[in-house]
Amino acid sequence: SHHLRLVGLAVVLLLALGGAMGKKLEKRCVNCSYRTYYSYGDGRSLQRVIYTNADYTRGAQSYGCSGNPCGVNAVCQEASGGRPVCSCPPGFSGNPLTHCNRGECLDNVDCRGDLQCQNNRCVNPCVGACGIGSNCDARNHVAVCSCPSGYNGDPYTACHLNDPEEQCHPSPCGVNTKCEIINGVPTCSCIHGFQGNPLSGCRHECEHDGDCGGRDMCSNYKCVPSCGQCGVGAVCKSVSNHRAVCECPKGYIGSAYSECRPECYGDVDCPAGRPACFYGICKNTCDGACGVGADCNLRGLTPVCSCPRDMTGDPFVRCRPFTKEDLCDPNPCGTNAICVPGHDNTGRERPVCNCLPGHTGNPLSHCSRGECLSNNECPDHRACINYQCVDPCIGKCATGASCEPKAHLAVCRCPAGQSGDALVSCRQTRTFPVAKYH
């Protein structure tokens, strides 16, 4: 055949031994360079052969499989371009470039029943075959995985300890039920508010009032007494159309459908106008406490009765209009004082108090007997003024004048050298020269 010419750089990958094969390639390749592509641990290497000219002739192709480039027991096949490809035949394993060894087996029949033929070797099929926590038993060359007693799950993935609650998942019970494990057995029961057969399904006791008796009503899907609608302390008079007719007892207040209670439990529960609590009812203690026409005012809870300002009388019996005589009855004045009807500054009638003759003091509280009633009851140098024996000269004479009490009177004199009215004013006496006539 004709020569194979390559233009430019041609790259061919060859499997070559690091020793002798490399030398063979060097001998049959002219102007070639080699670059290591990958190195194996047993000394072999994968090299890249780079041809730098086109002088690789058909003679080089004669080194295909005819040159026996493969190892012992290996099979050589030429690929495209005459490149030799070495491989171990079936039943052999090893490095086809050096030596192929006869394997232990070609199929499972070549191995014991508890072993499996993998890569021409009889190996334990359980290695890495089963999941976590599972048991493995090699039978007829196959790994048989199972979960231990008391465990469940997928033995090819993982086994876990049995949970009794799993017997209720999924639940073997009907609708509106609950599943519980009792003594290791799943037990079904109706959930609260439902009744019926828990194995087939439970339902509400009632859906509407018509499902209940005449004196009962349907509440929260249960038949309950209709009178339960009445409030605290209320009385259930009757039931009409499954509804209770409720009333508060006499003397009680509030709503018969929420709570009936006394108006009060103590005085603090009562309003200002009715401050006293009597047997659960708030009352005004002034009611009926005072007489006809009298006023009543509460002092705390105590009623205080009085007649109006323009009336008089017994406020617990009857009040009547005033007369002048009523102003001084009873006597509003103090001791030793007398009362007479009079008027105040605005002209309104009022009682006027005066001390008795010969008495002094505050007529509204107390008047005392005076020291004297007349001058005769006083010494000669004293005068009876306001029922007291006092010096008659006090405040009687003019400034600078002298006073001498005598016979209960003040005797005033201007001093020597002064003249004037000793009761009014004293002044210095003036002297004028008088001509002498002979």
UniProtKB/TrEMBL annotation:
Q: Which SMART domains match?
A: EGF
Q: Which residues form the signal peptide?
A: 1-22
> Which InterPro entries would you find in this protein's record?
Dumpy_DPY, EGF
Q: Which residues form the EGF-like domain?
A: 61-101, 324-368
Q: Which Pfam families match?
A: Dumpy_DPY, EGF
Q: Where are the transmembrane segments?
A: none
**What keywords appear on the UniProt entry?**
EGF-like domain, Signal
Q: Which PANTHER family match?
A: DUMPY, ENDOGLIN-RELATED
Protein name, entry field: EGF-like domain-containing protein
